[in-house]
Records
---
Amino acid sequence: MKLIFLGPPGAGKGTIASKICENLGIPHISTGDLFRKAIKNQTELGKKVQQIIESGDLVPDALTVALVKERLNNPDVEKGYILDGFPRTIGQADSLSEFSSIDAVINFTITDDQVIKRLAGRRLCKNCGAGYHVDTVKPKEEGICDKCGGELIIRPDDAPEAIKNRLAVYYESTEPLIDYYRQKGILNDVDGSPEVAAVVKDTETTISAI
Ligand code: ADP
Ligand code: ZN
């Protein structure tokens, strides 16, 4: 099953995708995670995109598409995958259709107020990238990653100014993808506002009906 997870920043795409991928045994491909890893390792790509990502803008389509295309050459994608945070523009979606055939798109819906609350409380493991939230996805020990013991930090693009910009960028560039995929007949809406376990369950029900 080849799936796209769509939705505004903070809709829970990453959290839900990591659980579903674990259950289905397919890779979770997050462009945000791939970019953050490149920044952490200060690769050529990482140096190019650091400023853009910290301000909440989108990385240019050409760089993003090349990154995903390369990732999809890995043999682990044979049984399918979830694309989390890609495509984010119509241009990216058009490019994707040239090298992948997507079975379905899950669109996670959530209000702007909830987005702001969620992003402001979000924490990230500095070491492995696992995501947490101070109210809803708490680690066993405060400030420490359950998976690797790494330190939990606030992402630079979760600062209030960057959050505002990311929402504006979402409405301008990414929201049009809802209609794009609805017209192709492969869009499925899932309410992203309940607690994580409930959204995972709704998403699994939706996927099993595809
Ligand atoms: P969120 O979904 O919480 O906004 P992500 O981790 O998916 O966060 O993405 C973080 C940042 O990485 C984005 O704000 C953007 O700068 C960059 N990025 C991720 N995916 C893409 C993409 N498909 N196209 C352009 N930029 C992207
Ligand atoms: Zn960790």
Note: The first strand starts at residue 2 and ends at 6.
---
Amino acid sequence: MEKMIIIGTGCAGLTAAIYAARANFAPLVLEGHEPGGQLSTTTLVENFPGFKDGIDGPELIMNMKAQSQRFGARFQFAGVSEFEPKENFVSVKIDDQWVDTQTLIIASGASARWLGLPNEKRLVGHGLTSCATCDGAFYRNVPVCVVGGGDSACEEASFLTRFASKVYLIHRRDTLRASKIMADRALSNPKVIPIWNSEPIEYLTDENGEVRGIKLQNLLLNQTSELEVKCVFVAIGHVPNTAPFKGKLDMDENGYLLQNGGTRTNVPGVFAAGDVADHVYRQAITAAGQGCAAALDAEHYMAGL
Ligand code: NAP
């Protein structure tokens, strides 16, 4: 029987791990299929308090992990595929093995949302990606496009101007959802060319099966056009990683876990923190705050408070 299992190693999971480890729970922290969460695929984080010149996302994550290990957190490269609430404890299936735990903190975050167009899965890694930080440098001096109108799309578009010859920013409306500072930064870059009121409807491929462009529908004019690009960067938001908990934990209609007093879920001993439960703020610092709260809530639960 574990005292505490934490699912996820983004800001929420690692902050929970620091607090739980310092409370002597020696939590078992599961790294999942995207270790480090969304910060591990970003560049400079300028809004995490305490770093006046900003800090690299991966560096921030590595620091948090090392900080938790210093106090006894244990890490395993594995994910949870199933979940069963029991009397006074819960069971999770880690790889192929069921493990019992007194408390569980779910901080499994959210993963990139895709457009749902034909051939999408096959094209990932062949001119289609959701991570500019990971793949941007492969596309030097060629045109690329970013799909989306939020902070992620603007951040990716600005970042890609370091490499690409042109960065088309394709948005389905004519105003960006992004914060003013991120929008201004992207749109003031001469390499960024916005394409408004347009939605991708097809990935175009060459004879080798690599992306050679994208077919767009102008939603106002109801016309289609083809745009030649070497890579499509999709940045249209995220979906929460809650599949193992469907039907067992309360969720909203989009699959986000519902919190019921602090970070508590509807199952005693199970807590939710960060983007897996938060579709409103979704910031590194709010996720970290929730991770702290989840560890404290779990500590109170174990103490019978
Ligand atoms: P988001 O704010 O949800 O924006 C998603 C964008 O994709 C929206 O513009 C949306 O269009 C568009 N979209 C959604 N589904 C689409 C579809 N099927 N086809 C075409 N377009 C579609 O997501 P995000 O940009 O990933 O940001 C998530 C959170 O992280 C936000 O809170 C953001 O502030 C934060 N963030 C912060 C930073 C930073 O501060 N450094 C960087 C990145 C992200 P509509 O606008 O029409 O809905």
Note: Helices lie at 11-22, 57-70, 120-123, 132-135, 151-160, 180-187, 284-302.
---
Amino acid sequence: MTRKIDIFDTTLRDGEQSPGASMNTEEKLVIARELLRMHVDVIEAGFPISSPGDFESVRKISELVGYDAVTCALTRAIEKDIVVAADALQFTKRPRIHTGIGVSESHMRDKLRVTPDECIERAVAAVTCAKRYVDDVQFYAEDAGRSDYDFLARVIQAVVDAGATVVNIPDTTGYSLPDEFGRRIKYLVDNVRGIEDVIIAVHCHNDLGMATALAMAGVAAGARQIECTINGLGERAGNTAMEEVVMAIRMHGAELDAHTDINTREFVKASRLVSSITGMSVQANKAIVGANAFAHSSGIHQDGVLKKRDTYEIIDPADVGAGESQIVLTARSGHAALKHRLEELGYEFDEQKLDELYEAFLNLADKKKEVYDEDLESLVNERDREDGALFSLEGLQISCGFPLKPTATLTVKDPEGQVVTVCDWGTGPVDAAYKAVNQVLGADNDLMEYSVQSVTRGIDALGEVTVRVKAANGEIYTGRGADGDIIVSSTKAYLNALNRLLSDRR
Ligand code: KIV
Ligand code: ZN
């Protein structure tokens, strides 16, 4: 059995400190419920002294959590903070007080204005004070990432001797390199007496984009708890993203001698929940939970994934609740991807028809960024309408606008294969095009209905036009046409209706 790594979630505390991400108690409770579904080991519910709202949140969250996880409350190394935290946690089934102090030269000299010895005294006093209220006391050595190795070891030795059960080594400013951070943890493992009886935690910020790497280096060196947040929410550039470290441990558990108990299938849901509550959107290329994390758009990758998913995916999207790999159809997609998607939509075509459709698809994809299922269906229907049509559209040029007179130049191939070009004008571009069609087809009719609808979302969507025409004998014919240009769709729809009318007449 590998080492169990505890997942300490601080979305509700460090995550909430992220500018613009503050949450009310109700919202925090919704997230806490999701954290329980994920089976996190510790929930840091807030910083009770900071506001009555935070105090209330810690109290309510701890009631909700019960025995299912440890509920933790943050304090500074100040007696009043600890007393208030203990009060907020008084009915908690598994309470933990998280107290600590800055240990880097800059924190001691510029922020706290204490000497190193005074810093150690305060750290010990805080742990001793917290121990009067709860058994489980976690100590954080703020800015440990920039501290002196020997001094850090002295502080940690003192708080372990004072009864701390967990020692948290934060890289508060996200300054370290992973190798160096790993060496720091190893230094504590080798130099603090009794450290094997306490849990070493890592809490890494993302200022250099390395929070996940730092946390993994910490685990490799002996840490048994990772502090993290959903989506990597947190101060400045954020905290360690839970979904990233948990999946990294899942992938490399044997090398790291580590596992977690997290239900990874909740990741995408949790990510969306936190994003919608905090209003902090998740970048599309975010690892594990971003919209593109399992999307493939280049032809080479699509071909590989369709042959075997793991050629380009290290994680099964279902394992993180992301459903299935996505094949995004764009101008870079190949035959294989188009065929696969059409088959998923229930269409099967021979190679020749598929080649024709691929050409139409590329024409469309050149105009649109992404081709959706509805676009494909529309393309297929368009090809069906064109197959066997008496008259087919070969070209259309329109000139219109203010103060021009709308004119249409239409080229159509007739049933004998002859190409005819005519010109006409009208009250608008559609009227001009329809008059030109009437010139060539000579099919008496009355246009009863005309409607246009976009096939998909976006301003580059295909427009689908439906028309209903009444023949001289009273029979009604419907026609449809789709194209990125709605005058072309309109003309295709009208031709489609008149082709039906003429076929019947024949
Ligand atoms: O980043 C940090 O050092 C913290 C501590 C309070 C644990 O958030
Ligand atoms: Zn932090």
Note: Residues 14, 170, 172, 203, 205, 234-235, 239 surround zinc ion (ligand 2) (CB under 6 Å).
